[in-house]
Structures are given as structure tokens and as C-alpha cells.
Amino acid sequence: FLSNARVRSRPLAIVFLAALAIIASSKSGKPEYLNAAYPLVFASGAVWWEEFLALKTQWVRRAGTGLVTFSMVAFLGITLPFALPILAEPSFITYSKRLGIAPQTSEKKELAELPQHFADMHGWEELVAAAEKAWSTLTVEERGRAKIWAVTGGYGPAAAIDVLGPTHGLPHAISTHNNYWLWGYGADADGPVVLLGGPRDRLEEVFASLVQVGTVEFGYCMPYENHKPVYVGRGMKRSWADLWKQLKHYE
């Protein structure tokens, strides 16, 4: 029975290895893309352990089961802080340093003291608050024609405005990153634009007037999200249609 079960479990291992090969050979593949396939090899491994222990004495079966259980619990206890934010930031930083584990990212980006999957959880409330402050400088008439443009940081800042912004009275954001570029820039109106990030010299090529109204400061976020300037731009020198064609950003 067990041998037959092991044979039936082989396709699971084949599927896992095929997925591993595809992701490893792709230039854009990331380790987390394989997460959905791990249960397949866990199931195969469980079949092997069951067959192995079934042929041993009762004492060996108990010892083997205890060893596997202890190993799983110990591994869970050590690694859980890296999977779930159960520690405060200073405690997590100290804990990871004691284990000799440096912050990591699968996107080859600059990091501060937190790994990217934790750093990406920070700074969004501060970003929305800065956008709300900039929005409040517009007149009521201007707000009907205004936009919020997440210039840098990709879809993350734009999504933060979309999810958290409505409770602050903010409209949906626009961005040129991935599907946000496909969703477009809305109405082609020459109204003021709240700009989240972006090099000033480049933005001055687009807007006749550019006033910095704030800066996003939050140390635990990704470095490129920290010290982000927030501007209000007026008097566009180019049409949205012309500008949008040149700003498509896919990665």
C-alpha cells in the first residue's frame, strides 16, 4: 500500500521540479513564486516518512515522530518572526542581528534595517497624510480638476492612496507603473497635480509652477519611499496624452 502511495506521489514531485526549473530559468522569477508548490513536496515527503517509519519498531516510530515534531516546532519558533510581524521593529532588528541574518530582498533594491516584505508594510499612512496635506492647499474649485500622481515608488504609493485615501477625502491616484499605466490618467484636464516623489528638475520640465509642500519621513519603510518630496504642480507644459505615451513603466 505504502509503495503504491509513494508511486502515486511522484507526479507531485515532478510538478514541483518543473515549477522550480521554470522560475529559476526566468530572469524575472522570484523565490516566493514557488510558495504555492511547496505543499506538493510536503505531501510527497510525508508519504516517504510514513513508509520509512512503518517498517521500524514501535520505539523507533515514536522517536522518529518525536524528532520530526520537535524539528518542526523548533524551526517554526525560530523563523516565525521573519514570516509574521510579531515583534516590534527594534526587537526584530536585534533578533535578526543576533542570528546573523541580514535584511533581504528578491528585487535587488537598497534596504535599510528591515527586509523588504516588512519594510513594505511601513510608511503608507505617512504618505497618505502628506498627500492629504498637499490636497488641502488646493481650492475647492481646483480639487474638481486635480489629480494625485504617484510619480516614484511604482504601484505601491498609488495603491496606498486608493485604499487609505478615501477616508481622507482623496481621489484615486494615477501611476505609470504596470497596470496603473493601462488604467490611464483620467480626464485630460489642465488642473493642479499633487505629485508624490520625483526629481524636481524632471518635474519642472512638465509643470510651469512646482511647489514642494511636504516630505514623507518614516525610517522603517523602504529607503526609496523615505524622504519622498510631495509637490503641487500647476500649468502643464504638455498634454496628458502626449506625456503618458512616454512614461510607460513595466517590470
What does this protein look like?
- By secondary structure, the protein is α/β, with parallel strands linked by helices.
- The protein is 49% helix and 12% strand.
- It has 11 helices and 5 strands; from the N terminus they run αααααααβαβαβαββα.
- It has helices spanning 2-25, 38-54, 58-83, 89-98, 116-119, 124-135, 140-143, 155-164, 179-183, 200-203, 240-245, and strands spanning 147-150, 173-174, 193-196, 207-216, 228-236.
- A 5-stranded mixed beta sheet has the order 2-1-3-5-4.
- Helix 8 (155-164) links the parallel strand 1 and strand 2.
- Helix 1 (2-25) runs antiparallel to helix 2 (38-54) and helix 6 packs across helix 8 (155-164).
- The two termini are 49 Å apart.
- The mean pLDDT is 89.
How would you briefly describe this protein structure?
The chain has 251 residues and is α/β, with parallel strands linked by helices. It has helices spanning 2-25, 38-54, 58-83, 89-98, 116-119, 124-135, 140-143, 155-164, 179-183, 200-203, 240-245; strands at 147-150, 173-174, 193-196, 207-216, 228-236. The longest helix is centred in the N-terminal third of the chain and has 26 residues, at 58-83.
